[in-house]
User: What shape does this take?
Amino acid sequence: MKFRPVLSSDLPLLYAWRNDIGTRKTTANPGRKVLWPEHLNWFKKVQPDGMWWVALSEESENGTFPIGHVRFHVSFNKEYPTAWSAVANVTVGPQFRGCGFGTRIIRYGTRKVWETTDAFRCLAFVKMNNLASSKAFAKVGYNAVDKWQGQLVMEIRRGDGEPASKDIWPS
Ligand SMILES: CC(C)(COP(=O)(O)OP(=O)(O)OC[C@H]1O[C@@H](n2cnc3c(N)ncnc32)[C@H](O)[C@@H]1OP(=O)(O)O)[C@@H](O)C(=O)NCCC(=O)NCCS
Assistant: This one.
């Protein structure tokens, strides 16, 4: 798997993933579809402050194609005490879920946070019934540390479970 920073040309795909029913079930209001202008405004607002990567499939004769994305915002959640924290958000394309990609994408994004920011921890806010998400974060080393507004708060701290050499982090 390869990764690259998000591009504005990814917007239609991010929009499709955001409105997919499996993704909406993980939000506060699953019945509501986001409208395109709303999506554009949201992207304009959060894009400059976040760290984003798009995960691409392994290269084949057909080239690569996006399979998921991860983004982290340092201290993004203003209501939860998140100082010096990077808050994760991850989506895998509906047709690629359950194949281990989510775990690999979260691992990559978490490593990038350690490499490129001063954040001392990464947090994920996971709906209680979102087993795929809580398991994927747990496999990377995140621990459930709190419950907040019906969500599980999962945390990994800098240095937790880090392998001795960066070279052995799978991409
Ligand atoms: C959550 C998400 C990113 C996980 O990525 P994924 O590629 O589907 O997950 P993985 O294949 O890496 O699986 C991680 C673990 O969850 C398990 N899992 C996967 N799908 C599952 C499901 N539907 N129900 C229960 N467990 C599931 C896997 O078996 C694996 O555990 P295991 O190794 O013990 O078997 C992805 O499903 C997704 O994009 N969902 C919609 C958006 C979302 O929920 N985002 C996160 C918001 S916090």
